[in-house]
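hi! just following up on the protien thing from before. the input was this:
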Amino acid sequence: MPTIMSAASQDGGYPQIRRDLVPVFSSDLHDWLRLTHWHDTDFREKELGNYRKKVHTMSTSQVVKYQSYDQSGYKENGHMPATVAEATRGPETGRMTRRDRVDSNGSRGRSMSPSYRNGYINYRVRDKLEFSGMDRGQPRIDHGLEDTRDPARERLLHRRPKSFEVGERGTVRFFVMRSGSWHNIYKSMEDGVWATNVSKAEMLSEALSKGTTVVLFFAVNHSHGFQGYAIMKSAPSKDVYHPRWWHDVKWPISEPFTVDWIVTRHVMTTRVSHIVNGLNYDLPVTRSANGQELSFGAGLQMVKIMNAHGREAVANEKRYRRITKTTGV
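and the predicted 3d structure came back as:
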Protein backbone atom coordinates (compact mmCIF):
# COMPACT_ATOMS: atom_id res chain seq x y z
CA MET A 1 0.00 0.00 0.00
CA PRO A 2 1.55 3.33 -1.00
CA THR A 3 2.30 5.88 1.66
CA ILE A 4 -0.35 8.58 1.59
CA MET A 5 1.38 11.23 3.68
CA SER A 6 4.84 12.64 3.06
CA ALA A 7 7.35 13.38 5.82
CA ALA A 8 6.85 16.45 8.04
CA SER A 9 8.09 19.73 6.70
CA GLN A 10 11.25 21.31 7.99
CA ASP A 11 9.36 24.09 9.81
CA GLY A 12 7.53 21.59 12.03
CA GLY A 13 4.20 21.93 10.19
CA TYR A 14 1.77 19.15 9.22
CA PRO A 15 2.96 16.50 6.77
CA GLN A 16 1.69 17.04 3.26
CA ILE A 17 -0.21 14.58 1.05
CA ARG A 18 1.92 13.27 -1.79
CA ARG A 19 1.35 15.46 -4.82
CA ASP A 20 0.99 12.48 -7.16
CA LEU A 21 -2.08 11.30 -5.13
CA VAL A 22 -3.75 14.69 -4.71
CA PRO A 23 -6.22 14.19 -7.59
CA VAL A 24 -7.39 10.92 -5.99
CA PHE A 25 -8.50 12.40 -2.64
CA SER A 26 -11.10 15.06 -1.99
CA SER A 27 -10.51 18.06 0.21
CA ASP A 28 -12.70 16.47 2.90
CA LEU A 29 -10.47 13.41 3.11
CA HIS A 30 -7.39 15.60 3.19
CA ASP A 31 -8.77 17.56 6.17
CA TRP A 32 -9.98 14.38 7.88
CA LEU A 33 -6.53 12.78 7.78
CA ARG A 34 -5.03 15.85 9.35
CA LEU A 35 -7.77 16.08 12.00
CA THR A 36 -7.50 12.44 13.13
CA HIS A 37 -3.67 12.40 13.06
CA TRP A 38 -3.65 9.33 10.86
CA HIS A 39 -0.57 10.70 9.18
CA ASP A 40 1.19 9.40 12.32
CA THR A 41 2.24 5.88 11.27
CA ASP A 42 2.77 4.61 14.82
CA PHE A 43 -0.63 5.87 16.00
CA ARG A 44 -2.40 4.37 13.00
CA GLU A 45 -0.77 0.95 13.36
CA LYS A 46 -1.53 0.87 17.08
CA GLU A 47 -5.24 1.67 16.64
CA LEU A 48 -5.69 -0.81 13.79
CA GLY A 49 -3.88 -3.50 15.75
CA ASN A 50 -6.16 -3.04 18.77
CA TYR A 51 -9.26 -3.15 16.59
CA ARG A 52 -8.23 -6.31 14.73
CA LYS A 53 -7.25 -8.02 17.97
CA LYS A 54 -10.62 -7.20 19.53
CA VAL A 55 -12.59 -8.49 16.53
CA HIS A 56 -10.54 -11.68 16.38
CA THR A 57 -10.98 -12.32 20.12
CA MET A 58 -14.75 -11.86 19.98
CA SER A 59 -15.28 -14.13 16.98
CA THR A 60 -13.01 -16.84 18.40
CA SER A 61 -14.71 -16.86 21.83
CA GLN A 62 -18.17 -17.18 20.28
CA VAL A 63 -17.18 -20.09 18.06
CA VAL A 64 -15.45 -21.93 20.94
CA LYS A 65 -18.44 -21.36 23.20
CA TYR A 66 -20.99 -22.93 20.87
CA GLN A 67 -18.74 -25.69 19.64
CA SER A 68 -18.07 -26.77 23.25
CA TYR A 69 -21.67 -27.88 23.76
CA ASP A 70 -22.12 -31.60 24.21
CA GLN A 71 -23.15 -33.15 20.91
CA SER A 72 -25.52 -35.49 22.74
CA GLY A 73 -27.32 -32.55 24.21
CA TYR A 74 -28.09 -31.22 20.77
CA LYS A 75 -29.46 -34.59 19.71
CA GLU A 76 -31.65 -34.92 22.80
CA ASN A 77 -33.11 -31.44 22.28
CA GLY A 78 -33.55 -31.91 18.58
CA HIS A 79 -30.95 -29.29 17.60
CA MET A 80 -27.93 -29.62 15.36
CA PRO A 81 -24.54 -28.10 16.23
CA ALA A 82 -24.26 -24.49 15.15
CA THR A 83 -21.94 -23.52 12.33
CA VAL A 84 -19.52 -20.62 12.63
CA ALA A 85 -21.94 -18.32 10.81
CA GLU A 86 -24.86 -19.40 13.01
CA ALA A 87 -22.81 -19.11 16.20
CA THR A 88 -22.05 -15.46 15.51
CA ARG A 89 -25.81 -14.76 15.49
CA GLY A 90 -26.27 -16.04 19.04
CA PRO A 91 -27.74 -19.18 20.59
CA GLU A 92 -31.08 -20.72 19.82
CA THR A 93 -32.81 -20.54 23.20
CA GLY A 94 -35.99 -22.27 22.11
CA ARG A 95 -38.11 -19.59 23.78
CA MET A 96 -40.98 -18.00 21.88
CA THR A 97 -40.71 -14.32 21.19
CA ARG A 98 -43.50 -12.00 22.22
CA ARG A 99 -44.47 -11.57 18.58
CA ASP A 100 -44.81 -15.35 18.17
CA ARG A 101 -46.90 -15.91 21.30
CA VAL A 102 -50.52 -16.80 20.59
CA ASP A 103 -53.17 -17.11 23.27
CA SER A 104 -55.91 -19.73 23.45
CA ASN A 105 -58.23 -17.59 21.30
CA GLY A 106 -55.71 -17.45 18.48
CA SER A 107 -54.95 -13.74 18.89
CA ARG A 108 -51.39 -12.55 19.11
CA GLY A 109 -50.55 -10.57 22.24
CA ARG A 110 -49.20 -7.06 22.09
CA SER A 111 -47.01 -5.21 24.54
CA MET A 112 -49.18 -4.66 27.59
CA SER A 113 -49.36 -1.23 29.18
CA PRO A 114 -51.24 -1.03 32.50
CA SER A 115 -53.74 1.70 33.24
CA TYR A 116 -55.38 2.26 36.60
CA ARG A 117 -59.11 2.71 36.97
CA ASN A 118 -61.11 2.50 40.19
CA GLY A 119 -58.47 0.41 41.92
CA TYR A 120 -58.09 -2.19 39.18
CA ILE A 121 -55.18 -2.57 36.77
CA ASN A 122 -56.38 -2.88 33.19
CA TYR A 123 -54.04 -4.50 30.67
CA ARG A 124 -54.74 -3.69 27.05
CA VAL A 125 -54.12 -6.76 24.90
CA ARG A 126 -54.99 -7.40 21.28
CA ASP A 127 -58.62 -8.42 20.79
CA LYS A 128 -59.51 -8.42 24.48
CA LEU A 129 -59.19 -6.48 27.72
CA GLU A 130 -57.97 -8.25 30.84
CA PHE A 131 -58.66 -7.08 34.37
CA SER A 132 -56.39 -7.94 37.27
CA GLY A 133 -58.39 -9.20 40.24
CA MET A 134 -61.55 -9.72 38.21
CA ASP A 135 -62.91 -12.32 35.79
CA ARG A 136 -60.60 -12.12 32.83
CA GLY A 137 -62.11 -11.14 29.53
CA GLN A 138 -65.23 -9.70 31.17
CA PRO A 139 -66.09 -5.97 31.00
CA ARG A 140 -66.15 -4.02 34.26
CA ILE A 141 -69.65 -3.91 35.74
CA ASP A 142 -70.97 -1.28 38.16
CA HIS A 143 -74.08 -2.31 40.06
CA GLY A 144 -75.24 -4.58 37.27
CA LEU A 145 -74.72 -1.92 34.58
CA GLU A 146 -72.01 -2.14 31.94
CA ASP A 147 -69.86 0.95 32.39
CA THR A 148 -69.93 2.25 28.83
CA ARG A 149 -71.62 5.15 27.15
CA ASP A 150 -75.39 4.73 27.16
CA PRO A 151 -77.10 6.93 24.51
CA ALA A 152 -80.57 5.93 25.70
CA ARG A 153 -79.77 7.03 29.24
CA GLU A 154 -78.27 10.25 27.96
CA ARG A 155 -81.48 11.12 26.11
CA LEU A 156 -83.38 10.85 29.39
CA LEU A 157 -80.91 13.24 31.03
CA HIS A 158 -80.91 15.78 28.22
CA ARG A 159 -82.54 19.09 29.07
CA ARG A 160 -82.40 22.67 27.97
CA PRO A 161 -79.30 24.44 29.33
CA LYS A 162 -80.07 26.43 32.47
CA SER A 163 -79.53 30.15 32.55
CA PHE A 164 -76.03 30.97 33.75
CA GLU A 165 -74.15 34.24 33.45
CA VAL A 166 -70.38 34.16 33.88
CA GLY A 167 -69.29 36.93 36.23
CA GLU A 168 -66.36 39.27 35.91
CA ARG A 169 -62.78 38.10 35.95
CA GLY A 170 -61.81 37.19 39.51
CA THR A 171 -65.35 36.23 40.55
CA VAL A 172 -65.40 32.84 38.81
CA ARG A 173 -62.93 29.98 38.44
CA PHE A 174 -63.05 27.02 36.10
CA PHE A 175 -61.84 23.46 36.75
CA VAL A 176 -61.87 20.13 34.89
CA MET A 177 -63.26 17.06 36.64
CA ARG A 178 -62.11 13.73 35.22
CA SER A 179 -63.89 10.41 35.78
CA GLY A 180 -63.17 6.82 34.82
CA SER A 181 -66.84 5.90 34.84
CA TRP A 182 -69.78 6.90 32.64
CA HIS A 183 -72.13 5.53 35.26
CA ASN A 184 -70.82 7.93 37.91
CA ILE A 185 -71.35 10.91 35.59
CA TYR A 186 -74.91 9.81 34.83
CA LYS A 187 -75.67 9.39 38.54
CA SER A 188 -74.27 12.83 39.27
CA MET A 189 -76.60 14.34 36.67
CA GLU A 190 -79.51 12.58 38.37
CA ASP A 191 -78.56 13.22 42.02
CA GLY A 192 -76.64 16.51 41.76
CA VAL A 193 -73.77 15.09 43.85
CA TRP A 194 -70.09 14.65 43.07
CA ALA A 195 -66.83 13.75 44.84
CA THR A 196 -63.22 13.79 43.75
CA ASN A 197 -59.68 13.32 45.00
CA VAL A 198 -59.14 14.70 48.51
CA SER A 199 -56.46 17.20 47.47
CA LYS A 200 -58.54 18.45 44.54
CA ALA A 201 -61.61 18.78 46.75
CA GLU A 202 -59.65 20.92 49.22
CA MET A 203 -58.64 23.23 46.37
CA LEU A 204 -62.25 23.56 45.23
CA SER A 205 -63.45 24.19 48.79
CA GLU A 206 -60.89 26.94 49.26
CA ALA A 207 -62.07 28.69 46.09
CA LEU A 208 -65.73 28.31 47.10
CA SER A 209 -65.08 29.65 50.61
CA LYS A 210 -63.83 32.95 49.13
CA GLY A 211 -67.17 33.58 47.48
CA THR A 212 -65.93 32.54 44.04
CA THR A 213 -68.24 30.80 41.58
CA VAL A 214 -66.69 27.41 40.84
CA VAL A 215 -67.52 25.96 37.43
CA LEU A 216 -66.73 22.28 36.83
CA PHE A 217 -66.34 20.79 33.35
CA PHE A 218 -66.86 17.01 33.43
CA ALA A 219 -65.08 14.56 31.13
CA VAL A 220 -64.97 10.76 31.14
CA ASN A 221 -61.52 9.37 30.36
CA HIS A 222 -61.13 8.27 26.72
CA SER A 223 -64.59 9.61 25.86
CA HIS A 224 -63.25 12.10 23.29
CA GLY A 225 -65.35 14.89 24.71
CA PHE A 226 -66.91 16.65 27.67
CA GLN A 227 -70.22 15.53 29.13
CA GLY A 228 -71.29 19.00 30.26
CA TYR A 229 -70.60 21.38 33.12
CA ALA A 230 -72.01 22.17 36.54
CA ILE A 231 -71.72 24.75 39.31
CA MET A 232 -70.33 23.70 42.68
CA LYS A 233 -73.00 24.57 45.28
CA SER A 234 -71.56 23.31 48.58
CA ALA A 235 -68.30 22.26 50.19
CA PRO A 236 -67.61 18.54 50.73
CA SER A 237 -69.50 17.34 53.80
CA LYS A 238 -70.44 14.07 55.44
CA ASP A 239 -73.98 15.42 55.69
CA VAL A 240 -74.38 15.39 51.91
CA TYR A 241 -76.04 12.35 50.35
CA HIS A 242 -73.50 9.62 49.64
CA PRO A 243 -74.28 7.89 46.32
CA ARG A 244 -73.71 4.20 46.00
CA TRP A 245 -70.73 4.56 43.66
CA TRP A 246 -68.98 6.69 46.31
CA HIS A 247 -68.69 3.63 48.59
CA ASP A 248 -67.12 1.53 45.81
CA VAL A 249 -64.21 3.88 45.10
CA LYS A 250 -60.93 2.34 46.28
CA TRP A 251 -58.68 5.42 46.23
CA PRO A 252 -58.88 8.26 48.80
CA ILE A 253 -61.99 10.20 47.91
CA SER A 254 -63.43 13.34 49.42
CA GLU A 255 -66.80 13.72 51.05
CA PRO A 256 -69.57 14.39 48.50
CA PHE A 257 -70.59 17.92 47.57
CA THR A 258 -73.62 19.18 45.70
CA VAL A 259 -73.47 20.48 42.13
CA ASP A 260 -76.01 22.13 39.87
CA TRP A 261 -75.77 20.84 36.30
CA ILE A 262 -76.15 23.54 33.66
CA VAL A 263 -75.45 21.53 30.48
CA THR A 264 -75.83 17.75 30.24
CA ARG A 265 -74.89 17.31 26.59
CA HIS A 266 -71.87 15.45 25.25
CA VAL A 267 -69.58 17.88 23.41
CA MET A 268 -66.94 16.34 21.14
CA THR A 269 -63.34 17.41 21.55
CA THR A 270 -63.31 18.70 17.97
CA ARG A 271 -65.52 21.59 19.11
CA VAL A 272 -63.18 22.72 21.88
CA SER A 273 -59.72 21.44 20.92
CA HIS A 274 -58.76 24.89 19.60
CA ILE A 275 -59.08 26.39 23.11
CA VAL A 276 -55.73 26.61 24.89
CA ASN A 277 -55.28 26.88 28.64
CA GLY A 278 -52.86 29.57 29.76
CA LEU A 279 -52.61 27.90 33.17
CA ASN A 280 -51.37 24.64 31.62
CA TYR A 281 -48.50 25.65 29.31
CA ASP A 282 -50.96 26.75 26.59
CA LEU A 283 -52.01 23.15 26.00
CA PRO A 284 -55.50 22.45 24.62
CA VAL A 285 -58.22 22.12 27.25
CA THR A 286 -58.73 18.56 26.07
CA ARG A 287 -55.36 17.67 27.63
CA SER A 288 -56.38 18.60 31.16
CA ALA A 289 -55.93 16.27 34.09
CA ASN A 290 -58.38 15.93 36.96
CA GLY A 291 -58.55 19.16 38.96
CA GLN A 292 -56.77 21.24 36.30
CA GLU A 293 -57.79 24.89 36.50
CA LEU A 294 -58.61 26.74 33.29
CA SER A 295 -57.81 30.34 32.58
CA PHE A 296 -60.68 32.81 32.54
CA GLY A 297 -60.59 33.13 28.76
CA ALA A 298 -60.54 29.37 28.19
CA GLY A 299 -63.35 28.76 30.68
CA LEU A 300 -65.47 31.50 29.12
CA GLN A 301 -65.10 29.95 25.66
CA MET A 302 -65.97 26.52 27.02
CA VAL A 303 -69.17 27.83 28.61
CA LYS A 304 -70.25 29.61 25.41
CA ILE A 305 -69.61 26.58 23.21
CA MET A 306 -71.37 24.15 25.56
CA ASN A 307 -74.38 26.45 25.96
CA ALA A 308 -74.67 26.89 22.20
CA HIS A 309 -74.32 23.16 21.61
CA GLY A 310 -77.00 22.41 24.21
CA ARG A 311 -79.47 24.89 22.67
CA GLU A 312 -78.72 23.58 19.20
CA ALA A 313 -79.34 19.98 20.28
CA VAL A 314 -82.69 20.92 21.85
CA ALA A 315 -83.78 22.73 18.67
CA ASN A 316 -82.78 19.75 16.52
CA GLU A 317 -84.77 17.37 18.71
CA LYS A 318 -87.88 19.57 18.49
CA ARG A 319 -87.50 19.78 14.71
CA TYR A 320 -87.12 16.02 14.48
CA ARG A 321 -90.25 15.38 16.58
CA ARG A 322 -92.24 17.87 14.52
CA ILE A 323 -91.19 16.23 11.25
CA THR A 324 -91.89 12.78 12.62
CA LYS A 325 -95.35 13.84 13.78
CA THR A 326 -96.15 15.43 10.41
CA THR A 327 -94.95 12.57 8.23
CA GLY A 328 -96.07 9.83 10.57
CA VAL A 329 -92.74 8.05 10.20
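The longest strand covers residues 172-179.
Residues 69-77, 84-93, 108-145 have pLDDT under 50 and may be disordered.
cheers
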